[in-house]
């Protein structure tokens, strides 16, 4: 009988010792008895206690959250002063994944330690699922290739999962976009700030970088600050790559959350789009993180425990040794200073793509004119001229 250390998901900062017939590696997901409850948890490398009467592990699941998630969990706990178990609850967020597993004592297959390191076990269902996900994802990107390269134009011909229906997709880069993607590829070992005016084509640039990761059969996470923005990027990704990305946020159904969690931990090529909580998915082979609208205050978690998902993405990228792209038309001061000081890579796209033009902006000093109300004479004339032309005006008040 082996003694293992288990950290339960919940308000626990210390692990507890349990008995088990198997020798388990750190990161393996288990279910353990705790007082009158059964709690999910993970095996850790904490010291074990053998001089007391120990309870036995109830269940062993065919999942290992991996060393990177373990290190991220520890770092987050030290940084936020939140018990490790509470952060583990975020990682093991989809409880329905574990609801149909069998008890250790009910004919469970032998589970060699080495299989846990790869997050694969002798459980036929888990192996079949992993293989199916990997094959499907690989097929979706098998035909992705760089079609042509020139100084003024770069295009990827992408035949997605709808290739049999004749779908042929192109992701085109021009002008400043070419310089930006070249700079991103030359700065893969540090975070990168992609700074560009609205309409400059930042999305196409970072999707080109995403394509690089997909060619290496890696997983990619794209973060958005607001759930409302998710559908826009999901449709855009499907347009360019021919497959629909995996979505993770608070309004996704339990069924889809379960599928997303399993896809993340099973590995294989794939794009994940989500809000800040997607950072805690136990990715098996994450190859890139993109933080769109990196300046947005919605990345700040301000209930329960506090963190900025943009900053945690930087930490996770450092732990996993993968590129992190921060994209914004109005970067945060922190990111801008880090970029200008050389801590981050940096590219600025100052021109819009196509025929669209930047709007004309006038700053009016309200102290310089004598008038009643909140509308200045300059604004009043502009509104009257607009209405006279049969057009509309929109006024924002804070």
- State the oligomer: single chain
Gyration radius over CA: 25 Å
User: Strand order of the main beta sheet, please?
Assistant: 11-12-10-13-16-9-17
In N-to-C order, the SSE pattern is EEEEEHHHHEEEHEHEHEHEEEEHEHEH
Low-confidence blocks of residues:
105-168
- Count up the helices: 11
Distinctive features:
398 residues
Descriptive overview:
With 398 residues, the protein is α/β, with parallel strands linked by helices. The protein has 11 helices and 17 strands. The chain has helices spanning 67-80, 84-91, 113-117, 124-141, 176-185, 202-215, 230-241, 254-266, 309-320, 333-340, 377-388, and strands at 2-8, 16-20, 28-34, 37-44, 59-64, 145-149, 153-158, 169-174, 192-196, 219-223, 246-248, 270-274, 286-292, 300-301, 307-308, 324-328, 345-349. The strands form 4 sheets. A 7-stranded parallel β-sheet has the order 11-12-10-13-16-9-17, with helices on both faces. Strands 2-1-4-3-5 form a 5-stranded antiparallel β-sheet. Strands 6-7-8 form a 3-stranded antiparallel β-sheet. A hairpin with a 2-residue loop joins β3 (28-34) and β4 (37-44). The longest helix has 18 residues, at 124-141. The N and C termini lie far apart (66 Å). The model is unreliable at 105-168 (pLDDT under 50).
Describe the secondary structure blueprint for this structure:
Layout: E1 2-8, E2 16-20, E3 28-34, E4 37-44, E5 59-64, H1 67-80, H2 84-91, H3 113-117, H4 124-141, E6 145-149, E7 153-158, E8 169-174, H5 176-185, E9 192-196, H6 202-215, E10 219-223, H7 230-241, E11 246-248, H8 254-266, E12 270-274, E13 286-292, E14 300-301, E15 307-308, H9 309-320, E16 324-328, H10 333-340, E17 345-349, H11 377-388
Parallel strand pairs: 9-16, 9-17, 10-12, 10-13, 11-12, 13-16
Antiparallel strand pairs: 1-2, 1-4, 3-4, 3-5, 6-7, 7-8, 14-15
């Amino acid at each position: 009988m082996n003694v293992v250390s288990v950290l339960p998901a919940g308000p626990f900062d210390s692990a507890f010792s349990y008995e088990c017939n198997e020798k388990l590696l750190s990161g393996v997901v288990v279910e353990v008895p705790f007082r009158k409850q059964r709690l999910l948890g993970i095996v850790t490398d904490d010291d074990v206690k053998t001089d007391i009467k120990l309870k036995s592990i109830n269940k062993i699941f065919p999942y290992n959250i991996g060393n990177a998630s373990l290190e991220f969990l520890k770092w987050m706990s030290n940084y936020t002063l939140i018990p490790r178990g509470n952060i583990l609850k975020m990682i093991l967020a989809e409880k329905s994944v574990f609801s149909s597993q069998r008890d250790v004592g009910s004919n469970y297959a032998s589970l060699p330690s080495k299989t846990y390191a790869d997050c694969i076990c002798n459980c036929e269902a888990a192996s079949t699922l992993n293989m199916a996900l990997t094959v499907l994802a690989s097929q979706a990107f098998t035909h992705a290739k760089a079609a042509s390269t020139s100084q003024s134009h770069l295009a990827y011909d992408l035949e997605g999962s709808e290739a049999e229906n004749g779908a042929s997709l192109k992701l085109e880069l021009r002008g400043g976009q070419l310089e930006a993607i070249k700079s991103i590829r030359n700065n893969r070992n540090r975070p990168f700030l992609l700074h560009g005016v609205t309409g400059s084509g930042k999305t196409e640039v970072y999707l080109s970088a995403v394509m690089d990761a997909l060619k290496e059969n890696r997983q990619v996470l794209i973060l958005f600050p607001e759930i409302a923005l998710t559908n826009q990027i999901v449709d855009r990704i499907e347009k360019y790559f021919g497959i629909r990305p995996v979505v993770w946020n608070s309004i996704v159904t339990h069924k889809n959350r379960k599928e997303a969690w399993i896809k993340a931990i099973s590995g294989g090529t794939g794009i994940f789009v989500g809000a800040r909580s997607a950072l805690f998915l136990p990715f098996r082979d994450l190859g890139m993180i993109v933080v769109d609208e990196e300046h947005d205050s919605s990345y700040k978690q301000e209930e329960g425990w506090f963190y900025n998902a943009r900053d945690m993405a930087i930490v996770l990228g450092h732990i996993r040794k993968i590129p992190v792209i921060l994209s914004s038309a109005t970067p945060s001061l922190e990111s801008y200073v880090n970029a200008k000081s050389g801590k981050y890579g940096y590219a600025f796209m100052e021109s819009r793509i196509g025929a669209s033009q930047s709007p004309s902006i006038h700053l009016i000093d309200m102290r310089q004119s004598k008038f009643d109300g909140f509308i200045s004479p300059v604004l009043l004339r502009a509104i009257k001229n607009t209405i006279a032309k049969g057009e509309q005006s929109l006024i924002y008040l804070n």
